[in-house]
Amino acid sequence: MHTWYLGILIGLQKESIMSQFFSGALPFLAIGALVLCVWLFMLAGSRVVAEVPQQQKNEYHDDPPRYWVLLGWLGHAMAFWVTPLISSTTRRRLQEQLRKAGLEFSLTVEQFVAGQVLGALIALLILVVLMLPHGLPSLLWCTVAMAVGGFLPASWLRDLGERRTRQIGKALPFYLDIITLAIEAGSNMTGALQHAVDKGPSGPMCEELRRVLRDIRAGRTRAESMRALAERLRMPAVSNWVAAILTAEKQGASLGPILRAQADQRRNERFMQAEAMALKAPVKMLFPLMTCIFPCTFIIVFFPIVVRIMNEGLF
């Protein structure tokens, strides 16, 4: 009887020691499993990249965005594998957005879609790592995380295009003034564009005019280069300016007064836009006032009154 009882105690003690050992070694086992998974993932990724043709890795001509450089070989491989999944409608829409953002020579449509896919996977990985101490996340949270990760690159591209459009609209009157002065000084249109590029501030408008000059040097006519500028930007102000220049050249009219009128019109449009934004400011301030400022004001005003009423026993 004593021997049987002693055997049970020894067995329980061994189980306790083993459980303490495994509980102490559990973090190291988890780290080892994570390192093994990362190594297997990198090994599989290297095999996938080996199948990517070399020309798929060097399609862009300008420097790519910083986030794409950070993705490295994984982004190139993903861009190769998502190519058959992109529809023609999506391709045209993304090409237009990349052109508007000035990234048509920095990123391809395949690379941008690959960035969205990897963004969704990275967001899912971050969610799993953060929720791991509390258990695996639910399918709903995984879906939300992947949707957010895939939406961020699209939001970044749209914001970049809108910011670039605003910068071009802001710089256009200044460049028109430089071009007008050069035309009135006796320079031709190509020379005036070169003066504007040399003397104007750096920015998207300078890059677009430099591209017009590059197209002219490559053999395209000035009219074709200007029409290509209007087609790329698709801004009413730029389209009107290009149309006025081409009409004046076709009719043999003087470009100086026309360009000065265009500069004055663009400047007046900017003032009108600023006035419209100023009129919208009170409406936009209404929600923060109702949700943040007014409640704090009411608390500061009425809190002493409520405290005094409660101390006097009226409640």
UniProtKB/TrEMBL annotation:
Localization in the cell: Cell membrane
Domain Type II secretion system protein GspF residues, every copy: 176-301
Transmembrane portions of the chain: 21-42, 67-86, 107-132, 138-157, 286-307
Protein keywords: Cell membrane, Membrane, Transmembrane, Transmembrane helix
Superkingdom classification of source: Bacteria
This protein's GO CC annotations: plasma membrane
Pfam family, one: T2SSF
Lipid bilayer topology: Multi-pass membrane protein
Protein name stated in the entry: Type II secretion system F family protein
Organism of provenance: Lautropia dentalis
Lineage: Bacteria, Pseudomonadati, Pseudomonadota, Betaproteobacteria, Burkholderiales
